[in-house]
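In keeping with the milestone schedule agreed at the kick-off meeting, the structural modelling team has produced records for the first pair of proteins. Each record is given below as a sequence line and a structure-token line. The laboratory manager (R.T.) confirmed that both were archived under the project's standard naming scheme.
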Amino acid sequence: MIRGGAMAPVPTPTPTAAGSVAPAPVDAGTPVPSGMWLATACKMDQLNILAGTVMLAQAVDSLEVYRSFPGGNGQAGAYPAYASKVGATAAACIAAADQAACRASAAMLAAPNAACRDMNRCNAFAITTQKDSVQRIDDQKALLELLGVIDSPSEATVVAIWNGLSPSCAADFGATKLRGTEVMETAYGYSVRSEWMTCGNPPQRQTITVNRNGSVGDLMSEVIGGVNCVIGRRPAGLQAARPRTMSTPLGSFFANAAQLEAASVWAFARLARELVALAAPLDLVADAARFAFDELRHAQLTAALARRYGAQACAPVLDAQPRRPRFEIALDNAVEGCVRETYGALLAHHQAALAGDAHVAAVMTSIAADETRHAELAWRIASWLEPQLSTDERARLAHAQHSALIQLAREATIEGLSVRDAEAIGWPSAHVAGQLLRHMASALSLA
């Protein structure tokens, strides 16, 4: 092995009943006495999971790690699947005799896997260079042969990403402070965790254990904060955007809101096309198409509020989606329209009435009126579409709505803003949000 310094001891493998060798057990928690969470994914606020120590078991001049993302649609139009570098030990082809040819070969290999392009099943991969040789690694077995014993936080993070963990830099959203990706040494190896937040979803934390022999535990996910974003109709395929540090908590709030409002433009445009394909009544089609323009105006208004509070809104990114059958359209409408959009309209009215910032109150008064019509459309579509479904399908819709209410309650009843900021924009406290949800569920017979 090509390694420097002392090597941490590796747990002894245990023989199985069949006589083969099983990996040592993965310890989920107890750290060694010196164990503490250490940031590992970023350097100078730039994502680089290989910024720390990496001692490889094979001789290479450079190692680059990439994540793949599916194609889709954004405000600028359709875009293809793409790959993003999340870490590098050195510049590619640093020791090549013909560096131009070597870099060209590396660039050709730095593309999403075929399943990512064709079926949105995207995987991490790595590229190594050794003099003029360029190799791509997709298989985890080959990755572990390159890494050897996992004895550094950076190596543990690479293995964690291969198994579904999303790396991120630390970010400060005021009341919500996200620690990014961190690693802690444990008795058998490392525990890796990552925190991030995306528009339309609450802050998340993923945790996974990585043994020194490369075996891993289950990837665990949990919600760790409130949504901090206007609740509304989220389009299928809305991608998780890379979080960024905002200048103020309210700037972050309205930048996220603007991103979700812009994504709703696509949601209504797609809904209008699907209603046409289902031969829906013309008034439903016309309203769905018209409401896409409402959402565009909402995106502009909330983006202006974001700038007012010192932040810049980002355009939404959406995966390409196949044509949906009748039941999937009804399911999306039941959850995103009848539950989330109805609650979004209720929140908008609450903000319009109680926002301490008069400018926010005026904007939310305008948005609340539109969102009420959008929620009414969802219920009109449900009245027309759901009778066309089977008894079993209608039961599945009811169950999905109940589950959506539970999830929404988890998101809405976690404090996400300081009291002062919440009062400025009329955002309800966790207690009041819970009351609003209960009243809504009772009035609409959703509970």
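The second protein of the pair:
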Amino acid sequence: MKRGLLLVLLFLPLLVLAQEEKIHEFPRLRWGIDVGTDMFDGKTVKNPNIRESQSYYYDYPFYIDDRFYGGFLFNSYNYTRYYIGIKPEYSLNHRVTVAAGLRFSFNKSELNSDQKYFLWKVSEENLTTNYVQVSGVNQNNFYFGVPLEVKFFPAQSDMLVRQYFKMGMLFNFLAASQNSVSFIDENMKKYGDIVSKQMGKPSFFTGYLYFGIGFNIARMNHPFGSIEIQAPVRVFNNKKLASFIQEPAEGFGLQATFYIPTGKKKLSYTYY
């Protein structure tokens, strides 16, 4: 009897300690650094200066294919955009956060012939039309964007790995666009500025609605990270991602973020 009582007295402090109520706090505000990529399947928009006559390029009818414009340009185009940004995020409560920031994004687009070249009209006067043989055109586009986001956490408590769902909008503005041209004949390089100017630029503004699912990794009272999958959806129609790419309806994206908590206002929760 005495031995049993002694054991209870020895282990009782451990049982009480195990059930002790603990308070965990994390700052409501944190600064995040985003890096990510968005991938789309766009539609090729043929410049009116490209000669359409298929017979000029091919001598055999079996080259005709619905995947091509006029037999020499792909009908579809894979578009990939890379970005980095800074984004402050604020917790309204244990489950909901809001965020807004600035994002810098970059894309390099190429339009090449499936053969050696395609013909580009550089001038037309009366009955005379001048063409150059272009093997490909490139366009580098740079954007500044403003993302607005809302996150929802199904679990109220902060955990080492915590799932969330996200909805956001991105307002993207063209900052700069650079065109370059490759010719079959080196002597045609003098027409580079003319072709570059005729290529034009993408739309100045593009907007997206996107949805995502992700995970916070590590507790939010210390620097932590997150990884997520996004599904961007086009909001505004008839926009060009490049001067020769029509904006698609939807895409796929990946994003990683590193957060640094800051500020005196904090959220707390109880755990055992």
